[in-house]
Amino acid sequence: MAKSVTEYREIGKKRDGGRLDASFTVEAALVMSALFLFIASLITGVFDIHARVAGNMVLQEALECGTRLEEGQTLSEMESNAQQDYRGYFWCGGGNISLKEKGNRISGTAKMKTETDISVKKFDPENFLRLLRAAGI
User: Fold this and answer.
1) How far is residue 100 from each of residues 15, 74, 77, 129, measured CA to CA in Å?
2) 76-132 pLDDT tens trace
3) Total structural domains in the chain?
4) How far apart, in whole angstroms, are the C-alpha atoms of residue 96 and residue 59?
5) Torsion of CA 71, 74, 77, 81, to 10 degrees
6) Does residue 59 lie within any of the structural domains?
7) Is 82 domain-assigned?
8) Residue 33, CA distances (Å) to 4, 53, 67, 91 in order
9) Helix, strand or coil for residue 73?
10) Measured between alpha carbons, how far is 118 from 44 in angstroms, rounded to an integer?
11) Pairing of strands 115-121, 96-102
12) I need a labelling partner for 11 at 20 to 30 A (CA). Which of 19, 31, 76, 94 fits?
């Protein structure tokens, strides 16, 4: 007949003055080690998601700022500022953000364990005015 845990505890208290049998401590150690390993992997996964989201946010902000560059500002300056912002976030120290300009589009890449590519159209007021004129407005 199998005994419950509380019965074993009562037996242990009577025999050893409150100590449990060795099998309980070994089982508890195995359960706790598995539990700690599981929690550590969950936390690591959460930090990876945080790094990916932070990279996407910084990249999107850099691309939006790159569509309307101020006088004398270059895309490489925007890239270095975005890189500095991205590395300032926790768990994102090894990440990389790169920006490229090709024609009327600016594309960017955020790399960590995963890679995200985003491309946006630059601000083009001449084309906008041509379209308005062609529409007769």
Assistant:
1) 75, 11, 12, 26
2) 899 998 988 888 887 777 888 999 999 889 999 998 888 999 999 887 788 888 888
3) 1
4) 10
5) 70
6) yes
7) yes
8) 23, 30, 51, 25
9) coil
10) 26
11) unpaired
12) 31
Residue 87, phi then psi, degrees to nearest 5: -75, -15
pTM for the whole structure = 0.68
Helix (H, G, I), strand (E, B) or coil at 21: coil
**Residues contacting 59, CB < 8 A, separation 6+:** 82, 86, 97, 108, 109, 110, 116, 118
| Residue 12: pLDDT over 60 | no
Q: Does 25 map to a domain?
A: no
21, 81, 93, 102 from 62: Cα distances, Å: 62, 8, 18, 16
Report how far residue 59's alpha carbon sits from residue 116's, in angstroms, rounded to the nearest whole number: 9
Please calculate the CA angle 3-1-30 and round it to the nearest 5 degrees.
45
Range of the domain at 42: 38-135
d(CA 74, CA 5): 70
Q: Any idea what DSSP says for residue 134?
A: H
Which of 92, 55, 99, 97 lies closest to 73 in space, CA to CA? 99
CA angle 121, 124, 129 (to 5 degrees): 135
